[in-house]
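FIELD: query
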Amino acid sequence: MPTSTASARYDGFGKDGKGAISTRSGVLSDQPYGFGTRFEGKPGTNPEELIAAAHAACFTMATSFALDRAGHKDGTLETTCKVTLDQQDGGFAVTKSALSLSANIPGIDQAEFERIADEAKANCPISKLLSCEITLEKTLSA
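FIELD: result
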């Protein structure tokens, strides 16, 4: 199976530090992030925005494939995702990923639509990621 990679760099520490995120594909290349982009609305991105984009995309694709398997061959799906970051236990935690799906699918009834969407939500890889094992490889250079 394919492996996707991304990298992040942070120069300086705390609020004064500045980061940059890049992806192997080049879709993100030294995209700025830091305290200002995460908490003050400054230009750039932040981890929660990237999780929201990934969750919306993954869920929408999973729904599309499930609809195809169920015999639906045409339509449109649009999903937004809002990821919530809250203060918790003296730090921060992602506490919610709220998906909102709007669909136009000829010939589907409400019950089938809801069943397929619920299954896609439970089974898309990013939904599963939000409670996955996390590994960490560490290297410190002088």
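FIELD: remark
The chain has a mean pLDDT of 91.
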